[in-house]
């Protein structure tokens, strides 16, 4: 019996299996994490490229009046990379690049930083109300600066989130700003004066 115990103590044949059993979970988790990261980077790059291509197409007259065709092209490009993605689009048009994201000017008589108490404002986009973003209602005008945002949301490809408490859904947003070609005279809304809400 003593000889058998002595030979078992010196036997190293099963050590590799035991070591692999200890290391395997961390190794598998690391590999899945790397795959998840690289897949998301690839998807992000492809979505950004699709948006850039669509934006270039959108700036020419042929496509300026057909935004649905551009959205379809971007959606197909995204679905080619991430078939399960939910894709949403937003467009905003501005008379000039310097207008992007700017509020309509107003006279802040009470110095509270808010358009209220019947203060006068310059209605740049012609919709009759003061806006924190002076985007135009239409996005197909000649020479307009168009902001094109695409958001793609999809479930992670690998089950890493359940293990390391990550969000199981990835959201990628791509944005581009381009000026439409001068295929016509730019229609500029005549800014009118309005009154802020009381």
Strand content: 15-25%
Shape descriptor: elongated
Largest sheet: 3 strands, antiparallel
N- to C-terminal distance: 98 Å
Taking all Cα atoms into account, the compactness measure Rg is 29 Å
Summary keywords:
198 residues, alpha+beta, two-stranded antiparallel ribbon, 5 helices, elongated
Task: Explain what you see.
This protein is of the alpha+beta class. It has one domain. The protein has helices at residues 2-10, 15-58, 61-64, 67-81, 160-164; strands spanning 86-94, 120-123, 145-155, 169-179, 192-195. The strands form two sheets. The chain has a three-stranded antiparallel β-sheet with strand order 1-3-4, covered by helices on one side. Helix 2 (15-58) runs antiparallel to helix 4. The longest helix is centred in the N-terminal third of the chain and has 44 residues, at 15-58. The protein is elongated, with a radius of gyration of 29 Å. The mean pLDDT is 80.
């Amino acid at each position: 019996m003593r000889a058998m115990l002595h030979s078992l103590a010196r036997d190293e044949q099963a050590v590799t299996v035991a070591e692999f059993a200890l290391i395997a979970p961390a190794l598998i988790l690391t590999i899945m994490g790397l795959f998840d990261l690289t897949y998301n980077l690839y998807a992000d790059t492809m979505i950004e490229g699709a948006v850039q291509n669509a934006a270039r197409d959108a700036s020419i007259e042929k496509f300026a009046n057909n935004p649905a065709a551009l959205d379809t092209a971007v959606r197909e490009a995204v679905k080619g990379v991430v078939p399960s993605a939910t894709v949403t689009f937003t467009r905003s048009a501005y008379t000039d690049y310097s207008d992007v994201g700017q509020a309509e000017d107003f006279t802040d008589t009470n110095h509270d930083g808010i358009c209220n108490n019947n203060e006068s404002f310059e209605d740049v986009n012609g919709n009759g109300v003061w806006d924190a973003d002076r985007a135009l209602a239409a996005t197909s005008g000649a020479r307009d600066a168009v902001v094109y945002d695409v958001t793609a949301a999809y479930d992670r490809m690998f089950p890493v989130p359940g293990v390391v408490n990550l969000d199981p859904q990835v959201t990628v947003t791509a944005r581009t700003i381009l000026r439409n070609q001068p295929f016509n005279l730019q229609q500029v809304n005549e800014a009118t004066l309005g009154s802020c809400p009381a």
